[in-house]
Amino acid sequence: MPIISLAFKSMLNRRVTVLLTVFAIALSVALLLGVEKVRTEAKGSFANTVSGTDLVVGARSGTIQLLLYSVFRIGNATNNISIESYREIAARANVAWTIPLSLGDSHKGFRLLGTNLDYFNHYRYGRKRQLAFVRGAPFADLFDVVIGADVAKALGYRLDDAIIVDHGLGREGFSKHQDKPFRVSGILAKTGTPVDRTIHVSLEAIEAIHIDWKSGTRVPGMTVDAEKVRSMTLEPKAITAFMVGLKSRFSTFSEQRFINTYRGEPLLAILPGVALQELWGLLGTAETALSLISFFVVLTGLIGMSVMLLASLNERRREMAILRSLGARPHQVFGLFVAESVILTGLGCLCGVILLYLSLAIAQPVIDARFGLYLDISPPTCRDLAILGLVVAAGSIAGAIPAYQAYRQSLADGMIVRT
Amino acid sequence: MSTAIIQLSDVQFRWRKQDPLVLDIPELKVEVGKRIFIKGPSGSGKTTLLNLLGGVSIPEAGTLSVMGMDMTTLNPARRDAFRADHVGFIFQMFNLVPYLSLVDNVVLPCHFSARRRRKALDRSGNLEAEARRLLKHMELDVTSLASRPVSLLSIGQQQRVAAARSLIGAPALIIADEPTSSLDSDVQRSFLDILFREVGEAGASLLFVSHDSSMEAGFDQTIELATINQATPHK
Question: What domains are there in chain B, each with its CATH number?
Answer without folding.
Answer: 34-59+75-228 (3.40.50.300)
